[in-house]
Amino acid sequence: MKIRAEKGLTFDDVLLVPRRSPVTSRRLVDTSTSLTPQIRLAIPILSANMDTVTEARMAIAMARAGGLGVLHRFMSVQRQVEQVRQVKRAQGHIVENPYTVGPDTPLHQAEEQMRHLDVGGLVVVDEGERLVGMLTQRDLFLAPHDHLSVRDVMTPAERLITVGPDISPQEARAVLYQHRLEKLPVVDEEGRLVGLITAKDVMKAAQDPQATVDEKGRLRVGAAVGVTPGELERAQALVEAGVDLLVLDIAHGHADHCLAQLRELRRRFPETPIAAGNVATREGAYDLAMAGADAVKVGIGPGSICTTRIVTGFGVPQLTAILESVAGVQESGRQVPIIADGGIRTSGDLVKALAAGAHTVMIGSLFAGCEEAPGAPVLRDGQKVKVVRGMASLGAAIHRRLAEQGEDESAEDPQDWDKVVPEGVEAVVPYRGHVHEILQQLVGGLRSGMSYGGARTIPELQRHAEFIQITPAGVRESLPHDVHRI
Length: 486
Ligand code: XMP
Known about the structure:
The chain is α/β, with parallel strands linked by helices. The protein contains 18 helices and 21 strands. Bound molecules: xanthosine-5'-monophosphate.
């Protein structure tokens, strides 16, 4: 047994010491960072892989804002893959596999298909996937429906402007503008449909220039996988669906079976960025980095809904965990960014986490109240609230077991639940509107923090950072005091 001499510190234990700054305007600081060596983000923020935080809608909003969402894994492989596809379809230079219809389909059926898919047009192709026309809302609106088929009202291929697959986004934009088009089919040399370029996608890309996109202009998305052997098939399906980041996520990431799974994922998917965690020590971060992680996720018990430290007695206060993990990956000699996961309540915490050496932070509860998080808000004492729950909470465990056991009656045996030892709680958080509003506040605070730190970039913030430990009196002084808040 030993007791470490140094104290474990967390965000509230310290402040950053202001320093002379060359930053004349907060707008001039650069908040971009590396999530992994392969993925850059315009803002250093991820939404957590929790079932009350990140599904496709949140992932789309996060990537549009320049961050990234990590889809949770507590759903079937099929559903998780579908969510990856949904994000990848949300925008892009070229829509691959656009929705199509045959020329002899009855018009009312095509209309139903468009409504169901929520799209404004279908590309008309023959059995050989060759382009024969285009059907849009306008054609449907004007046409008398009875007894007509798609062929009767579509714009035929001869009257359509088409482009080849090698067209650049700039050229496509020029063609759309020149002919005042909304949709531009992309065909190969044999006239087969290979994609669709839409004015809407061009507009989306222009609206969010900082969005996190892949080389095809599609939003990036991460997805969590677990440690059991079956999870390798999940990873395989996610990679095939185009996931940008696999996150091997287990409560105690510094475990032999986690390291073995990481090595196996690395071997099977050499091209796919992989983050792994969670750890909270120098040795944990070192071992994950050496086993092939492209990013190490740090945090044992700092999360708002976590009870791991209470239930098990284990954990490391988050600021110390970040500092130790940074040292661990440095020892490995690999360029492996750190994801500080959990315990971020304010933009000040975000600045402290980054200054301590994290490259990104992962946020759960703060985002769980957002419109884009799964679930609808409910009224409680006249206030709109949303539910957040730890992934190791009793509620999450029950949900998972019921889903796994399907119709199995024994799943509902209340005695069975006694065996669950939760390491998380269920709670409500205030409804907080759209996530981009919270991100604006967080990034605004980060910009301001960087100017106090004399830093134009996050690496500069880290190089210059000087923390000062404070006392409980200092914490009291930091909060609003001696006033009645309104
Ligand atoms: P925040 O503070 O942002 O933290 O809500 C989110 C992170 O908390 C972790 N997490 C858990 N930790 N028991 C735990 O000990 C749980 O049930 C639990 N659920 C989530 C996770 O790392 C998440 O990203």
